[in-house]
Amino acid sequence: MDPVPKKKKSVSSKQDKSQAGSVKSKKQQPPGEILEQQHSQHDLQIDDHQQHDPFIPPPIQTQVKVCIHHNLPFQFFCEACEDPICQQCTILGPHNTQLHRINRLSDSFKLRCAKIEESIKANLLGKREQLLAQIHRIEYRIEEIKYVKTIIERDARAEFGGVLERLKQSEGQKLAILSHEISELQRDLDKINEVGSQFYDLKEIPDPCPFLLKSRNIYDQIEYMVAKPFKVQIDVYPYDLPRELTELRLQLQKASAQQQLIEFKNEIIWKLLSEKQIDEETIKQELERQASEEINEWSKLVDKFSQELKRQQLVCYYCGCKMEKQYVNSVCAQNRQEQDYDKVFCNEQPPQNYHGTSRHYFADPIL
């Protein structure tokens, strides 16, 4: 820059200096400040762009990495080992066998980049839209709950403070459940955004090695987020909030009808008790009559069976055998003419014409 010529002092030198200083500050602004302003404007543009698309991060500068075995730049990628390698690794080792599948860095980068990008567009973005839609549904349900709550609160505020307190507790429980569901969905949504940002971060790096090293992890995260289920059904409803005031009013309306029903029941019960006392006396007399008749019948049966039993207990006067079917019409060996009848088995003696007839004579035994 040309040197500024010296000026002579004058009475209005202060005013001239102030004006010259202001003009000079505008014209002779340092280049560093201009670059700083340009960089700040560029950062603001990047921030605005990131707000519209969360998957596109700002550019990142990295250092070029080299092979740890041969100190040469990476040119290939081992698909089996998931490691970037140099040309000497394919010749001298350790990636010089048929077990290693070797591709160029650019080919592996393009292949995996296309695969992950296709997976993001085909699956992850759809899952993201579903999560956002579910969040909107839950938020709409929250608004419904709040609206119903305000209606119930308007009716209950004038009468019962306890009803309002219980209503707020129920609302808090429902909102807590729904807020927890939103937080879970938002966590999954943030994870999806994080995966997308990580992918585009690595994609923008000139060196493909970091991307290839993390591509498997990114793909696994995508598969996990796509397969992870989320709850679609909203089990919290606004219409089961407690309506104690309405229920109390209905109970008061039913109280008079219930009182009339109770009086009618009491009257019926009294009549039934009165009739029961009369019926008990009648039933008691009838039971006594039937019991006496039953006892008479049983006494007759006892006499009959006792006589039958006595009949079965008869024995023969001569031989002492019991009156059974096999002896009734058989010959009595002891009833003979020449035999003395000193030993007998019955109290009742048979007629004289029975002696010596070889027939049995049954009578009551001697006890």
Automatic annotation (TrEMBL):
PROSITE patterns on file: ZF_BBOX
Any one biological process term the GO annotation gives: protein monoubiquitination
InterPro entries hit by this protein: TRIM_RBCC_E3_ubiq-ligases (IPR053003), Znf_B-box (IPR000315)
Domain annotation B box-type: ranges: 62-105
Keyword line: Metal-binding, Zinc, Zinc-finger
Gene Ontology CC: aggresome; peroxisomal membrane
Region span, Disordered: 1-43
Keyword Zinc-finger: yes
One Pfam family hit: zf-B_box
Biased composition regions of type Basic residues, renumbered to the chain: 1-11
Gene3D superfamilies linked: Classic Zinc Finger
GO MF, any single term: tumor necrosis factor receptor binding
Keyword Zinc-finger: yes
The protein's name: B box-type domain-containing protein
